[in-house]
């Protein structure tokens, strides 16, 4: 009887995460409490830079915003997973970046005009446009997948109310293993009011904007500060570090391009100027640099298989 129960549970897990099982992963980050999550993103001079895999780290055969892709990334490099949440016509939260289905799925048309019963039948396409065997996942499936694996950095797209995201996080009991991206002070205030324990990625282009977030009553230890794409801001980094928080830079454009040409020293030089988290389209490129650092000084809790 116990054996049959395990078989049934295994079948249900596969159905929940798609037709094809997930591969094993080499690296894990598994905070068990809210305090443990905050500690991962607490600044210290000895901190090891954190890799944020933009849209999950897509590669050939591995599409954006897909648990199988997340696992593939984590088999190569310790990374948190940035992923995008969309809303179907009938209010199902699922993972997709674009306004339309065309680029990343076998479907077509506006996301907000398509019911989930149609979207769930679609297959994902990788960045070269090739159809894969993977289906479009829901937010609930990704939150279940993330348990014991890594921190999900949630980028919330058009037309989704904070109440919907908070309800999904609470239902999955996932508050201690997610970070919610907020593009404005108003968004950050809304999420902090609804869920005062959430870790937020907040946008601040200068010290004044950082001070405004603190003045709004959000504790610095519950914020990671997105400081923009490509542009370095050492004075802002120093101010954020003085409050014990970390800084993110969007490296997806010029920085990733420069590193493709000139190698890891591009990222290393930027980290020396105060960047703590790299949001990148090239997460695998960080492995040669990040893994030895974590093996020497793993204060952030990564588990190595």
Structure description:
- This protein has 305 residues and is α/β, with parallel strands linked by helices.
- It is built from twelve helices and 13 strands.
- The strands form three sheets. It has an eight-stranded parallel barrel with strand order 2-3-7-8-9-10-11-12, surrounded by six helices.
- α3 links the parallel β2 (50-53) and β3.
- Mean pLDDT is 93; it is low at 1-21.
What can be said about this structure in brief?
The chain has 305 residues and is α/β, with parallel strands linked by helices. It has twelve helices and 13 strands.
List its salient traits:
alpha/beta, 35% helix
Derived from helix and strand composition plus strand pairing, the structural class reads alpha/beta
Ranges with pLDDT <50 over ≥5 residues? 1-21
What is the N-to-C order of secondary-structure elements (H for helix, E for strand)? HEHEHEEHEEHEHEHEHEHEHHEHE
The proportion of strand residues reads 15-25%
Task: Give the arrangement of secondary structure elements.
Layout: H1 2-17, E1 27-29, H2 34-40, E2 50-53, H3 67-74, E3 80-87, E4 93-95, H4 116-119, E5 123-125, E6 131-135, H5 139-146, E7 152-156, H6 162-171, E8 178-182, H7 185-194, E9 199-203, H8 207-215, E10 223-229, H9 234-242, E11 246-250, H10 254-262, H11 265-272, E12 277-280, H12 287-296, E13 302-304
Parallel strand pairs: 2-3, 2-12, 3-7, 7-8, 8-9, 9-10, 10-11, 11-12
Antiparallel strand pairs: 1-13, 3-4, 5-6
